[in-house]
Amino acid sequence: MKSILLSSAVVALLVFSGCSSKEPIVDETANNKAEKPAQEVQAVETETVSAENSSVMGENAESQSDTNEMSMASVENELSSVYFDFDKFSIRGDMEDKVSNDAQVANGAGSSYTVKLEGNCDEWGSDEYNFALGLKRASAVKKALVAEGVSANRITMVSYGESNPVCSDKTKECWSKNRRVDFKLLP
Amino acid sequence: MKKIFLSLLILVSVSFASDATIEVIKKVDSLPSLAIEDGSVSYDDTFRLKFFKTLVADMNVISLFNVDRHHRIVNYDDTDVVVQNKDMNYVFRYKLIEDDNGALSIQTKLISNEKDVFNKKYRIKNKKVYMFISHAIAYDINKFMGAPSVEWMKRKVVFSRITSPKKSEIIIADYTLSYQHVMIRGGFNIFPKWANKQQTAFFYTSLDHQKPTLKYVKITTGDKKTLLSSDGMLVCSDVSDDGSKLLLTMAPKGQPDIYIYDLGQNKYKRITRFGGIDVNAQFVDDDKIVFVSNRLGYPNIFSKRISTNEVEQMVYYGKSNSSCSARGDYVVYKARESSSAFSRNTFNLHLISTKTDFIRRLTATGVNEFPRFSKDGDAILFIKNYKAQSSLGIIRLNHNKNYLFPLKSGRIQSMDW
Hints:
The structure holds two protein chains of two kinds.
Chain A: H1 2-17, H2 25-31, E1 39-40, E2 45-47, H3 74-78, E3 82-83, H4 96-107, E4 114-119, H5 128-147, E5 155-159, H6 172-178, E6 180-186
Parallel strand pairs in A: 4-5
Antiparallel strand pairs in A: 3-6, 4-6
Helix pairs in contact in A: 4-5
Chain B: H1 2-16, E1 33-38, H2 45-61, E2 66-67, E3 70-73, E4 90-98, E5 104-112, E6 115-124, H3 130-144, E7 157-164, E8 167-173, E9 180-184, E10 189-194, E11 201-206, E12 213-218, E13 224-229, E14 234-239, E15 245-250, E16 257-262, E17 267-270, E18 278-285, E19 288-293, E20 300-305, E21 311-313, E22 321-327, E23 330-336, E24 345-353, E25 359-361, E26 366-373, E27 379-386, E28 389-396, E29 401-406, E30 411-416
Helix pairs in contact in B: 2-3
């Protein structure tokens, strides 16, 4: 009786599986079922939100202004990056001399090139606003260069937001190095 | 007296019932219990456990059950549930089978009160994309339970990841980012945005040219098209529901403003004219947008009609609200709460309704960014960074629940859902 039952089960299996050659695996695993103790998987992390308020404080980042971007051309080396305050796109007082110097280089040794201004931001906020901030920084430098006599037609701008950092530590000093406009020369 | 109070209560709850800015607090204990039983006959233990974990997470995210997390092995055809699961309201049982063609096929059933109440089979050619079956199962169970659709579970996420300075990849993933396929490798390509509801193509910005350039890629064929370029910056911020119009942030003269671009006519029109920063425009309807502007001296959320010049401030809370996502009457925005990156609470997400004055805080700790509504507005996807751990978060607005999935994808530049 038992063997009839077994063989009919096998027949049924064959019918359902379309004579699959892999089907015997079914029996194998069925025999070892529930041998191991059940493993509990990690809970899905959840977050509870309470209505707490925290104040927003202003911040004045420290300035850091003596690093230059290394670049290919020697003229490019004479152009120094301009640094900015946190969430600001106006040119700081201590940067004005640099911009004047950059304008002189651009009109002197670099006069046959197009000047590309690359606006950059720190990693605070990685969204469109940050890109626009980088662009406004480049734009502020462009205006200053134009005021110093560089032709506006020779200047192009691009913003890299926070995606072109020169420093990747999580310190205020590091972030202040990333809030900058770099100069690149194009033929 | 009691009756008056009662009817007042009912009136209040009815009038606020559909407002997601008001927190809905449900007791976890009141949810029915669900256990998951594994009756797999193929694949090794590692893969079986991986599938089980994914399914537990998905069943949690649908927020209808109190899900038991024990991985219990059964014979799929047994009539009785495992003894430890006797008291469960529901038992979901599945069987993973590798069929003759090497495809993964899955038999499933939902058991309640000793009866099979739901049966379905799934099949997928490549087992590497098993998470999509898991999402589909959760979607079907959710539908079977009669809950509002979780269509978003089946949708894909497109995101860009910075690999090194000025280098990035554009990747397509499932909503938990556990499946990842690199679509565009090499170069500096950012701000991907789905081009249509079907997710068959996306827009992105390429920074490999002299000027930022907007491109379009068809996923199925890999065909690329160049649309337009602008000095300074060019970002596709939103795509209209019918896919015919784009909201762009461009700066042809160095001034970041919002433009509307008609794909059919290949024409664009400037719609904001402020000398500071206007970015991140989102369609509320065909004629109305919300966007981020620093016109008050700090970034905040504003709205305007496309056809008129009048601008309205949307948010009165938070000193630095630098990004937003809109869906119907709701706007979710990111607010800076502290200027210290080392505090436990730096950027949080908040939800407002254009119809009421309520603000609901959606996150409590860490740096929370990239809020993205699902197409139906039922869920918000976001990235949380907290204590050196990055996670992908899902906020179920109507269930008042946030779910976090640890992330191994590196630094995300931008994403779209």
